[in-house]
Design goal:
This protein is of the alpha/beta class. Helix content is 41%, strand content 18%.
Length: 322
């Protein structure tokens, strides 16, 4: 049996889409909301099975990965997050690059020698790697309008991955992947798919709500926003952070979104973006807090207790001083 475990955002979906356009097989899909990256624990693989992991960190899957490898499961990994210590095993193949201007879809594009690059371009836009997306697109001869269309596609696919649970999303990421996988041409998907129109409308409405929120604190080096306990806020937190990072490339940004009620003491989910002019430090900042992690340019904290907000804000502005 073949299992495809992938992040539910634009990068994970487009990475798998490229891989399966090149190698069409029936596989079991394992995915979830963007922050659900410990996916291998959901897989009950046996000797002879194959697992492909895309855009999820090795270090968040260490225990089930080790068990799979010892059982004789072949595991192939594509990712751009800090992996921690990689296993050395005959059944493990790693395609990992943590450079700030690389995403998983660009790694799959590299692996496939550019065969379905146009999808990697959309994914890079969705991951807020606009410069990398444009560089990758150069051999494709696309017009400026087509590049803007791919940017919108990537941002809409990425937007769908954010949420506290699957109930917050417009589409389950596995469903969205299946809808998209029927298209080789992204422009056909944008023109013909009702799913894309749903995402486009939802994205516009949620961004309007986000832009009406004032920052809790702003300095020359960064801005911190605190968003309410609302589905729209959970859906838009990461993409709004990307939008602000593009608009203010000299600033770092943090989105603190109140988690749904019922959590003892209350907590927030945090999205952090380093300044685009200095894409480093986001991972180190978030790792200072339990449940924090990510990559140099973009990272997050899954559970930040309300009482620790002042500590986070102080650490945030220390990370990128004026």
């Amino acid at each position: 049996m073949i299992y495809d475990a992938f992040n539910g955002d634009a990068d994970g979906i487009c990475a798998l889409h490229q891989l399966r356009l090149a190698d069409p097989v029936e596989s079991t899909l394992i995915t979830g909301v963007k922050r659900d990256i410990g996916l291998l624990k959901q897989i009950d693989a046996v000797a002879g099975d194959e697992v492909n992991a895309l855009d999820i960190a090795v270090e968040k899957n260490v225990v089930p990965l080790a068990a799979m490898l010892e059982k004789g499961v072949k595991v192939r990994w594509f990712d751009h997050h800090n992996p921690g210590e990689l296993p050395v095993h005959a059944n493990f193949q790693a395609n990992i690059d943590t450079s700030a201007d690389v995403c998983t879809s660009l790694l799959v594009d590299r692996y496939l020698a550019g065969k379905y690059r146009i999808w990697a371009v959309a994914a890079a836009f969705g991951d807020n790697l606009h410069a990398a997306a444009r560089i990758a697109a150069e051999p494709l001869g696309l017009s400026g309008h087509q590049l803007e269309q791919l940017r919108e596609l990537g941002e809409c696919l990425n937007y769908n991955g954010y949420g506290d649970s699957l109930a917050d999303l417009h589409f389950h990421p596995a469903e969205l992947y299946r809808l998209l996988h029927g298209y080789t041409d992204p422009f056909d998907f944008m023109r013909e798919s009702a799913a894309f129109q749903t995402l486009r409308a939802g994205y516009a409405a949620d961004m309007d709500n986000a832009r009406a929120c004032k920052p809790a604190e702003t300095r020359a080096c960064g801005a911190v926003f605190i968003l309410p306990d609302a589905a729209w806020a959970r859906r838009v937190s990461g993409v709004y952070a990307n939008d602000l990072a593009t608009a203010y490339p000299e600033r770092a940004h943090a989105m603190l979104t109140r988690a749904p009620g019922g959590h003892p003491g209350g907590h927030y989910v945090v999205s952090v973006r380093a300044p685009l002019n200095n894409k480093s430090g986001a991972d180190e900042l978030c790792k200072r807090f339990e449940t924090g992690g990510g990559r140099k340019a973009a990272a997050g904290i899954n559970v930040l207790p309300e009482a620790r907000i002042p500590d986070f804000v102080a650490a945030f502005f220390d990370a990128w001083p004026s």
